Amino acid sequence: MLCCIGDLVEDVVVWPQAELRRGTDTPARIFRRRGGSAATVAVYAVTVGVAARFVGRVGDDALGARLIAQLDAAGVDTNVTRGGRTGSIVVLVDGSGERTMIPDRAAAMELDELPRGALDGVTWLHVPAYSLVVEPLGATSLLAIDTVREAGGTVSIDASSVGPLEAFGTNRFISLMAQIGPEVFLCNQDEAAWLGIEGDTPLSGAGITVVKAGADPVTIIDSAGGVNVVEVPPVDGVADTTGAGDAFAAGFIAASMNSATPPVAAEAGCRLAATVLTRPGA
């Protein structure tokens, strides 16, 4: 089973219909969606036939109950604690489909212990960096990593976003990754540049480093510096990139759990990511 630990929040996705004007109104289309990197990976993994569990914390409120119900309906095994206020993220999407996020993760950051049975039967643990750079969720995620590792499981980490990583600290994050030694480390071009990943230089400590580049090829670097490049099929009508990275992660992990090689897993990730690009939100 795949387990994803981290955030389950509401995304308020905003598609402005004109250039944003400061101090006055800008017409927009607004969509409310279930969001959160960890939850989204779990949902997309289920769509391609992998049993997936979400572990996290949501508020003791109606929004939290609704989000949990949506995960249950999607076929995800939810194991959550409740308390405080459920988080929300405003996602501003420009005309190219690029998104800018304004997060208030609230209760999602407050997971201070693993719920009973959270890691039962887990063979692969996926941890967005969002889950590692805040406390107490960070300490709880590290405990989950150690527990899964001791049981012989696999760990993947997604760099998530440059902003939170910058706040955490470059050297501090690189040292943490060397300590964890994830079998799979996923990032985009901006995150890779920030971490010094380029050419045949992988992230130190990672088994493989997977660098996504939007419509450009995916680069896979193994720990010895071997490189594979995977072409990304074109997608017409890209409107919103929100969740595409999480869908890629789900496709990559699901294929890997079914014994695919990294290049074949990347192709599976690209196919799943393509399904989210023409609609609002994750």
Blueprint (SSEs and pairs):
Elements: E1 2-6, E2 9-16, E3 28-35, H1 37-47, E4 52-58, H2 62-73, E5 77-82, E6 86-93, E7 99-106, E8 124-128, H3 137-150, E9 154-158, H4 162-168, H5 170-180, E10 184-188, H6 189-195, E11 208-213, E12 216-222, E13 227-230, H7 244-257, H8 262-274
Parallel strand pairs: 1-4, 1-8, 2-6, 4-5, 8-9, 9-10, 10-11
Antiparallel strand pairs: 2-3, 6-7, 11-12, 12-13
Helix pairs in contact: 1-7, 7-8
Textual characterization of the structure:
The protein has helices at residues 37-47, 62-73, 137-150, 162-168, 170-180, 189-195, 244-257, 262-274; strands at residues 2-6, 9-16, 28-35, 52-58, 77-82, 86-93, 99-106, 124-128, 154-158, 184-188, 208-213, 216-222, 227-230. It has 282 residues and is of the alpha/beta class. It has a single domain (2-7, 36-86, 108-274), classed as 3-Layer(aba) Sandwich (UDP-N-acetylmuramoyl-L-alanine:D-glutamate ligase), CATH 3.40.1190.20. Strand 11 and strand 12 (216-222) form a beta hairpin. Helix 1 (37-47) crosses helix 7 and helix 7 (244-257) runs antiparallel to helix 8. The radius of gyration is 18 Å and the shape is globular.
